[in-house]
Structures are given as C-alpha cells and as structure tokens.
Amino acid sequence: MVKKFSKAEAADSNLLGTVKESSTQIWLAGLGAFSKAQEEGSKVFEALVKEGAGLQKKVRKFADAQVSDVTNEVSGKITEATSKAAGAWDRLETVFEERVGRAVSRLGVPSKADIAALTARVEELTKQVGKMNGAAKAKPAAFAKRANGAAASVSKLAAKGAKRVVTKAKATARRVVN
Q1: Is the CA virtual torsion 104, 110, 112, 114 positive or negative?
Q2: pTM above 0.90, yes or no
Q3: Cα 158 from Cα 152, distance rounded (Å)
Q4: Helix (H) or strand (E) holding 35
Q5: pLDDT for 93-117, tens place per residue?
Q6: Given pLDDT bands bounded at 50, 70 and 90, which one contains residue 61?
Q7: What is the largest CA-CA distance in the chain?
Q8: 31-65: string of b/e by CB count within 10 Å (b at 16+)?
Q9: Which three-class secondary structure state does DSSP give residue 122?
Q10: Are 2 and 25 within 8 A, CB to CB?
C-alpha cells in the first residue's frame, strides 16, 4: 500500500526512505500489471482474432448478398431495356418496309409477289414447251408426214379454188364485154 505523507514528515529525514519505498511499490505494481497483461494479453488477443473472423464472415455474407441483389436488379433492367429496344426496332423496320413498298408501288416497280407469280408462270410455260418439243422430237417423221399431207391438201384446195375463181372471172368478163 502507498503511504500518505503528512507535512510534518516531509521535513523529516525519513522522507527519503518513504519516497524510496513508495517508488519501489509503484514499480512492483507496474511489473505485476505488465505480467498480468502478458498472461491475459495472449488470451485476449486470440479472443479478438476469433471475434474479428466471425465479424468478417458476417460482413462478407452481407456484402455478397448486396452485390447479388444489385446484380439481379441490373440484369432485370438490362433485359427490359433490350426488350424495349428490340420492339422499337421492329416497329421502325415495319414502318420503313411499308413506306418503301408504297413508294416502289407508286413508281410501278413490280413487287416480290408479282415477280414470284411471273416466275411460276414462266416455269409452267417452259414445261409445256418442253413437252411439245419432246413430242416433236420423239415423232418427227409423223409430224413431217402430217405436215406434207396437210400441205398437199392445201395445195389441192388452193388449185380447185383458183380454177373456180378463174372460171368465174372469165364468165364475168364475157358478160361485161358482150
């Protein structure tokens, strides 16, 4: 224990002894406190490390949850914006196609449907001509025979017709002259 000085003792020669004893006690109390702090310090330090690790895990979980929430929200907004942009693009494309179609129609340019219909008709006619050419190639002698027969018939008819015309013309000429 620390002794208290009185004013009378201060003047006394024992003052030096009392100061020495008090400083020794203070020194020893300090050493005792240091020793206790060393013994308890490692335990306290380990307890603080454990508590800090637990707190770090909690903070990390909270931060991860916040990042996940923000990421999900941003992804949703991006998806929504992309959807809106695609819809606007589709509408713009439709309007553009309609206006170009009207302008081309006014100029008299055939449409894709018109060209497709004409292409189909040309293909059909090509097939028919091919069939006719195939039949003609397959039976050229028969066609030639028919053609020769037809030509002969026409020649006979023409000759008969010509004779009649000449006979009638002569008769008419005689009447006019007589």
Answers
A1: positive
A2: no
A3: 10
A4: helix 14-107
A5: 888 888 887 776 777 777 778 788 8
A6: very high
A7: 202
A8: eeeeeeeeeeeeeeeeeeeeeeeeeeeeeeeeeee
A9: helix
A10: yes
Backbone angles phi, psi at 5, to 5 degrees: -95, 145
Q: How much of the chain exceeds pLDDT 70, in percent?
A: 66
Token pair for residue 72? 């999900």
- Structure confidence by residue, pLDDT tens digits, 128-155: 888 887 765 656 566 556 655 555 555 5
Burial track 137-173 (b if 16+ CB lie within 10 A, e otherwise) = eeeeeeeeeeeeeeeeeeeeeeeeeeeeeeeeeeeee
Neighbouring CB atoms inside 10 A of 21's CB total: 13
Q: What average pLDDT does range 31-46 have in this prediction?
A: 78
Q: Tokens 């929200």 appear where? A: 73
When computed from its CA atoms, the radius of gyration of the chain, rounded to whole angstroms, is 63
The pLDDT of residue 57? 92
Q: What is d(CA 90, CA 49) in angstroms, rounded to the nearest whole number?
A: 60
DSSP letter at 4?
A: P
Report the chain's terminal Cα–Cα distance, integer Å.
Answer: 189
Question: CA-CA distance, 104 to 108, in Å (whole number)?
Answer: 6
- CA of residue 178 relative to chain centroid, distance: 103
